[in-house]
Design a protein that fits this description.
2 domains; Fibrinogen_a/b/g_C_dom; 9-stranded antiparallel β-sheet; Fibrinogen-like_C; AGAP012000-PA-like protein; elongated; disulfide bond; two-stranded antiparallel ribbon; Fibrinogen_CS
Length: 294
């Protein structure tokens, strides 16, 4: 009997009160049971909605991934693989994609200045001009590169390896002293080995107006102060001469040495091409660049 239908009688007050309390408790439990059932129902509904939303989101994510991959493929085809593929005659920085993967494009300085009537399309990988960048760096820095392509920089040995491991490339070295004299060395082949090979230097025949101070280094491994791969026994050429290079025992050319603002200095730690202009003279500017041969 519901508690609101109970009639209180004299002498039965305790029993009636117990009945009222029990009825009220039963009513409360009935309400709680109904609420529980309602909650379970709505929880199931929310789970179904959640599953549906997650399914839609998952489908959208998969669709977006496929679309992004397609965009990457198209953009990868649009980016040039090297400076020889750039449609311009202006020397400036460009993004290139030699890896064929949009996630790994990088910026390079493409040179089209027609130095010594040799044409353009050169990819610059080393540039010295004002001493603003310290070239005494460790192995990791030389592997990945440092500096800014708009100024002094080193592009990176790993990039050089990737870009020169196939096909045929030529190397051009530009040199300038503080008196305004300039010269060049051109090599008809250029290749850099892998890191396992310690980025071994390989190049071909020489022509140019600078004396050939580079052939001495042909076939040598790259060395930094923290990774000594030279052929000079216990001596660490990179550490001794404040730079990093394809040292042999130790060098005839070393374009990654310490920069001296006035050229002349008393030791061999500078930016050197031994026969230009003279011994113990540190150059004002150097540029090393390569391009694929047609």
């Amino acid at each position: 009997m519901p508690f609101n239908e109970l009639v209180l009688a004299d002498g039965d007050t305790p029993a009636v009160m117990e009945a009222v309390i029990k009825a009220m408790n039963d009513f409360r439990w009935e309400i709680l049971d109904n609420l529980k059932l309602s909650l379970e129902y709505h929880t199931e509904q929310l789970e179904e909605i959640k599953y549906h939303v997650e399914h839609v989101i998952h489908e959208q994510e998969n669709r977006m991934k496929k679309e992004n991959l397609e965009i990457q493929r198209i953009l990868g085809e649009l980016l040039p693989g090297s400076c020889t593929q750039v449609k311009t005659n202006t020397t400036r920085a460009f993004y290139i994609n030699p890896y064929g993967n949009i996630e790994k494009p990088f910026m390079v300085l493409c040179n089209f200045d027609n130095h010594f009537n040799l044409g353009g399309g050169w990819t610059v990988f080393q540039r010295r001009m004002d001493g603003s960048v310290d070239f005494r760096r460790n192995w990791t820095m030389y592997k990945h590169g440092f500096g800014d392509v708009s100024g002094e920089h080193w592009l990176g040995l790993e990039k050089l390896h990737i870009m020169t491991r196939s096909g045929r490339n030529e190397l051009l070295v530009l040199l300038e002293d503080f008196e305004g004299n300039s010269t060049y060395a051109l090599y008809d082949e250029f290749k850099i080995g892998s890191e396992v090979e310690k980025y071994k230097l390989i190049f071909g025949n020489y022509t140019g107006t600078a004396n050939d101070n580079f052939s001495y280094h042909n076939g040598t491994k790259f060395s930094t102060w923290d990774q000594d791969n030279d052929q000079s026994g216990k001596r660490n050429c990179a550490d001794q001469y404040n730079g990093a290079w394809w040292f042999k025992s130790c060098y005839i050319s070393h374009l990654n040495g310490r920069y001296y603002q006035k050229g002349n200095h008393l030791n061999k730690t500078g930016v050197h091409w031994t026969d230009f202009p003279q011994y113990k003279y540190s150059l004002k500017s150097t540029t090393m660049m390569f391009r694929s041969r047609t």
